[in-house]
């Protein structure tokens, strides 16, 4: 139904992190240096990596565009994972510590990264017939133990990078599988719709990563829509934090409420849409609206969210109809068209798509 040929991702190179800048900004101004110092250092490293990201994307895109999944026997479409240890430096990728098929490491961070790369690869291949994140077998590379007390994880256009956290606010970033799935899905978006990382298209970019990050977790755990927690980054905060996750798709705005972090600012509907110039126009904030729409769709359809609900979102992302600056209304319309194309006019799936967008105040579906 859809072509899986890799699409060049050079147009809108971005640097995408799991922890939003507004949250780190809040921690960085805390009076206790124990909290603020790691946050300031993380923001500085993120700024450096953002510059590096602009440079590396073109080379990566040209390599991917030269390959096609159609040229490879399906039986040979296997993951190619390599994990490196940055050894608390900022030099990437670092020292190779585990590669595809090798025995587990004594380092739990290495093994968690390896397993989560595999879980992400497995969902995209077995459910959506996508061979790695570029659709053409791109090797999956990750570096653990990046920097000192680095409070983030990111996809830089070529690989995944994980910090260990500061131990005060954040734990090791390899702990939640959905964090890894989220960041790798930025790569899928990079090679498909290539949504501009600004305003509503940027919020959609973030939301798509949350959606598939959650689906990767649910798929790996065998959870139904009712069993899933619909949290992004659950277990990432230490016990000192008053919060359960970075974001909640089920109830945006309720993930945390803490003296150091502040309160989760995500809206659930367009009534509370946040107009801001920070965070590229609130890409990590307003993503709560399409997140909540997907949650409503998945629960309405029931069963396993990666099946019908996830298929509609995947078809939308990869169908070639989205513009780089697609807004919420245009994305909603595209999801309705995807549901109609796959399941038929008048189908339960199409009606559920229209309903979920209406309930969060987005017109167009």
Automatic annotation (TrEMBL):
Active site: residue positions: 183, 284
Compositional bias of kind Basic and acidic residues: 74-88
Domain named Peptidase M4: residues: 81-190
InterPro entries: Metalloprotease_M4 (IPR052759), Peptidase_M4 (IPR023612), Peptidase_M4/M1_CTD_sf (IPR027268), Peptidase_M4_C_domain (IPR001570), Peptidase_M4_domain (IPR013856)
Cell membrane recorded as keyword: no
One GO location term (cellular component): extracellular region
Chain intervals for the UniProt region annotation (Disordered): 66-105
Pfam families given in the database record: Peptidase_M4, Peptidase_M4_C
GO molecular function: metal ion binding; metalloendopeptidase activity
EC number per UniProt: 3.4.24.-
Name used for this protein in its record: Neutral metalloproteinase
């Amino acid at each position: 139904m859809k072509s899986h040929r890799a699409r060049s991702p050079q147009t809108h190179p971005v640097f995408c992190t799991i922890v939003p800048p507004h949250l780190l900004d809040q921690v960085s101004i805390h009076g206790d240096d124990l909290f603020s110092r790691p946050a300031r250092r993380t923001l500085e490293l993120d700024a450096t990596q953002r510059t590096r990201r602009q440079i590396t994307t073109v080379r990566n895109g040209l390599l991917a565009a030269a390959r096609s999944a159609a040229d490879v026997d399906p039986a040979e479409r296997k993951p190619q994972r390599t994990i490196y240890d940055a050894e608390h430096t900022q030099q990437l990728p670092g020292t190779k510590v585990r590669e595809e098929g090798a025995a587990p490491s004594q380092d739990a961070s290495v093994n968690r990264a390896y397993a989560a790369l595999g879980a992400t690869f497995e969902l995209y291949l077995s459910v959506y017939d996508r061979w790695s994140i570029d659709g053409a077998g791109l090797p999956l590379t990750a570096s653990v133990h990046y920097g000192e007390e680095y409070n983030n994880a990111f996809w830089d256009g070529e690989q995944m990078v994980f910090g260990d956290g500061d131990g005060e606010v954040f734990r090791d970033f390899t702990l939640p599988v959905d964090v890894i799935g989220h960041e790798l899905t930025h790569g899928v978006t990079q090679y498909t719709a290539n949504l501009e990382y600004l305003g509503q298209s940027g919020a959609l970019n973030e939301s798509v990563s949350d959606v598939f990050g959650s689906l990767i977790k649910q798929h790996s755990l065998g959870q139904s829509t009712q069993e899933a927690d619909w949290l992004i980054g659950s277990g990432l905060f230490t016990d000192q934090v008053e919060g359960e996750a970075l974001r909640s798709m089920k109830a945006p705005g309720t993930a945390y409420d803490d003296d150091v972090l502040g309160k989760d600012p995500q809206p659930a509907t367009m009534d509370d849409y946040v107009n801001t110039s920070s965070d590229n126009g609130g890409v990590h904030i307003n993503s709560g609206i399409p997140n909540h729409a997907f949650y409503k769709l998945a629960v309405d359809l029931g069963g396993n969210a990666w099946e019908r609900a996830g298929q509609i979102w995947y078809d939308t992302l990869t169908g070639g109809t989205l513009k780089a600056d697609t807004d919420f209304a245009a994305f909603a319309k595209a999801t309705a068209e995807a549901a109609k194309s796959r399941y038929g006019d008048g189908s339960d799936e199409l009606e559920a798509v229209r309903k979920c967008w209406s309930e969060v105040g987005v017109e167009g579906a």
